[in-house]
């Protein structure tokens, strides 16, 4: 992965003094997972550019993690070598530690001065939100130019990849520039690691000093920097100026999403299944709940979207799980509208909020694939109850809850569909409410549990 910082402040080569790295001498240093290199692709009095190149060894990264992933080569072929991430932040600190403190032996007055800088990050992850980089750096006074890389330049119709080519320019102190990059690069990458501890709060507060407290995205920055660990977030929050304005802790009642996942998990547990398919697994919310249950010895998560599978891998921290857990879980890409022999031989399958994402006229393909061909012993299906939408004040009548929902069914429609499928494919079906039911409108979510009948 690569980062360059340029300046045109004359004499531009003074950048070498500020960074304590001689433009004439390339510098190489070791990192826990590879090597870093500092060198100057250009060094003239008019313009000087320093490059920090980090070579991450993906094999070293995945050592002891064999068997992980949705594809056999995933531990070896992934974005870690080129996508800007916390490895780049660590390398920044390693290479430019003194500059980050704002000290410069030779040019102390220059270190204290705001200078024109331009930063280029050729591959910055932007998985969920392509506008985030602009918001994060824009608020700090940077002019942000970015464009997404195509997924594959050979196939423009495949669209954009979740990586940006990003250029930042601003007149800032070098110390501040480095602190912004140090904190915000891992925030944009948002990869979860298994181990984060209190030391991270300290780093965040130290490098966030003077700018983080008032940043409109402070909450997001803190959350992502601390790897979504609530306890750490709360501890960090106590250091911010508006600590008193802190929202009261959320009530302990489960939200609908949690209730749904718990209901599905319960149905799967009581089906006696040990091997389970999570079909349309999305970001892995159900799998995260199934993984700790010893009853489930074989789990397969399938989704049509490679992008959500990347999130699922991260959310499940698959790369950091001990081998015994990892070997139980496979994530794979596939579509429920095509017969897939990999889905055969499982005890149970879950389709959580998935059927409504297919065109109603194509639903029969899923029925054949799941009930006709994969034929698990039990199938748990959930879908919104359309009648309940009247309870959501923000939903005008006739609207679905999610823009990607192709249809939403009333209880009668869902039950009619489920009974027809059951009788066609030799299953028995029962129905359960999920979430707090309205007397008249029924529950927000409806669930059907199918059990294959002895043939
Ligand atoms: N079950 C998950 C995700 C629900 S969203 C949860 O409850 O959190 C619906 C998911 O179905 C999306 O991730 C979408 O990518 C996936 N999906 C839609 N059509 C699909 C198809 N034909 N085959 C497989 N997955 C599909």
Automatic annotation (TrEMBL):
Keywords: Magnesium, Metal-binding, Methyltransferase, RNA-binding, RNA-mediated gene silencing, S-adenosyl-L-methionine, Transferase. Its EC number is 2.1.1.386. The keyword RNA-binding applies. Gene3D superfamilies: Hen1, N-terminal domain (3.30.1610.20), Vaccinia Virus protein VP39 (3.40.50.150). Residues 1-238 form the Hen1 N-terminal domain. The keyword S-adenosyl-L-methionine applies. Its cofactor is Mg(2+). Residues 277-369 form the Methyltransferase type domain. CDD domains: AdoMet_MTases. It catalyses: small RNA 3'-end nucleotide + S-adenosyl-L-methionine = small RNA 3'-end 2'-O-methylnucleotide + S-adenosyl-L-homocysteine + H(+). Belongs to the methyltransferase superfamily. HEN1 family. PANTHER family: HEN1, SMALL RNA 2'-O-METHYLTRANSFERASE. This is Small RNA 2'-O-methyltransferase. It comes from Deinococcus malanensis.
């Amino acid at each position: 992965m690569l980062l360059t910082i340029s300046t045109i402040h004359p004499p531009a080569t003074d950048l070498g003094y500020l960074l304590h790295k001689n433009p004439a001498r390339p510098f190489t240093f070791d990192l826990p997972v590879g090597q870093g290199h500092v060198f100057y692709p250009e060094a003239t009095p008019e313009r000087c550019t320093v490059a920090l190149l980090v070579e991450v060894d993906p094999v070293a990264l995945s050592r002891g993690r064999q068997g992980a992933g949705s594809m056999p080569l995933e531990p070896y072929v992934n974005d870690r070598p080129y996508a800007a991430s916390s490895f780049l932040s660590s390398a920044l600190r390693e290479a430019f530690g003194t500059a980050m403190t704002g000290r410069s032996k030779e040019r102390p007055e220059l270190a204290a001065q705001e200078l024109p800088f331009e930063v280029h990050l050729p591959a910055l992850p932007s998985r969920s939100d392509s506008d985030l980089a602009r918001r994060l750096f824009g608020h700090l006074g940077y002019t942000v130019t970015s464009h997404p890389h195509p997924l594959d330049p050979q196939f423009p119709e495949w669209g954009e990849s979740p990586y940006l080519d990003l250029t930042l320019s601003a007149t800032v102190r070098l110390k501040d520039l480095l602190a912004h990059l140090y904190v915000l690069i891992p925030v944009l990458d948002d990869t979860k690691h298994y181990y984060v501890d209190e030391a991270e709060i300290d780093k965040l507060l130290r490098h966030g000093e003077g700018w983080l407290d008032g940043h409109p995205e402070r909450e997001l920055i803190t959350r992502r920097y601390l790897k979504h660990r609530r306890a750490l977030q709360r501890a960090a929050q106590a250091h911010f100026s508006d600590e008193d304005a802190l929202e009261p802790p959320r009530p302990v009642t489960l939200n609908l999403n949690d209730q749904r996942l718990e209901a599905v998990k319960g149905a799967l547990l009581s089906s006696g299944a040990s091997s389970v398919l999570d079909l349309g697994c999305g970001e892995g919310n159900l799998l995260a709940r199934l993984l700790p249950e010893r009853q489930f010895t074989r789990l397969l998560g399938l989704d049509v979207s490679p992008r959500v599978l990347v999130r699922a891998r991260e959310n499940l921290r698959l790369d950091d799980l001990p081998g015994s857990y990892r070997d139980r879980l496979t994530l794979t890409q596939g579509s429920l509208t095509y017969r897939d022999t990999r889905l055969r031989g499982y005890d149970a399958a879950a389709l959580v909020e998935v059927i409504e994402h297919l065109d109603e006229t194509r639903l029969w393909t899923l029925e054949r694939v799941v009930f006709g061909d994969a034929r698990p012993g039990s199938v748990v299906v959930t879908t919104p109850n359309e009648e309940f939408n009247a309870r959501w004040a923000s939903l005008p009548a006739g609207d679905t809850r999610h823009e990607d929902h192709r249809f939403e069914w009333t209880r009668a429609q869902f039950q009619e569909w489920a009974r027809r499928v059951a009788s066609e494919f030799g299953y028995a079906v029962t129905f359960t409410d999920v979430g707090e039911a309205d007397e008249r409108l029924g529950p927000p979510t409806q669930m059907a549990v199918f059990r294959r009948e002895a043939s």
